[in-house]
C-alpha cells in the first residue's frame, strides 16, 4: 500500500499526465473543477473550483520538459 508521500506523488503525476494529454489535444485552458471531477472528486467539492482556470502555455511545456530531463545520479531531488 502507498504511504501518503507516495500517494501524493502518484496523484501529482496522474494530474500532470492528464494535463499533458489535454495540451497535446489543443486544450490550453482547463477549469480546476473539471480536472478534479476527472480525478474522481465529488461534484459538490469540485464545483467550488469551477472558476479557477489553469492555463497550459509555453511555461507548462518547459516545466514538463524540465521534469522529464534525466538528472545526474548524485544530484539530490528536493
Shape: flat
Assembly state (oligomeric): single chain
Class derived from helix and strand content? mainly alpha
Strand percentage lies at 5-15%
Ends distance: 23 Å
Number of extended strands: 2
Overall radius of gyration: 15 Å
SSE order: HEHHEH
Give the neighbour order of strands across the main sheet. 1-2
Q: Main sheet?
A: 2 strands, antiparallel
Helix content: 40-55%
Tally of individual helices: 4
Low-confidence stretches: none
Quick check: average pLDDT?
Answer: 87
The total number of structural domains is 1
Keywords:
flat; 78 residues; two-stranded antiparallel ribbon; mainly alpha; 8% strand; 4 helices
Describe the 3D structure.
The protein has 78 residues and is mainly alpha-helical. The protein has helices spanning 4-24, 32-38, 43-46, 58-67; strands at residues 29-31, 53-55. It has a two-stranded antiparallel ribbon. The mean pLDDT is 87.
Task: Reconstruct the topology from this structure.
Elements: H1 4-24, E1 29-31, H2 32-38, H3 43-46, E2 53-55, H4 58-67
Task: Give a short overview.
The protein is mainly alpha-helical and 78 residues long. 54% of the residues lie in helices and 8% in strands.
Amino acid at each position: 500500500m502507498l504511504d501518503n508521500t507516495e500517494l501524493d506523488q502518484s496523484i501529482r503525476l496522474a494530474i500532470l499526465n492528464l494535463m499533458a494529454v489535454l495540451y497535446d489535444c489543443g486544450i490550453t485552458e482547463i477549469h480546476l473543477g473539471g480536472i478534479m471531477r476527472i480525478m474522481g472528486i465529488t461534484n459538490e467539492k469540485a464545483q467550488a473550483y469551477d472558476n479557477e482556470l489553469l492555463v497550459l502555455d509555453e511555461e507548462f511545456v518547459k516545466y514538463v520538459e524540465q521534469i522529464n530531463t534525466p538528472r545526474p545520479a548524485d544530484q539530490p531531488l528536493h
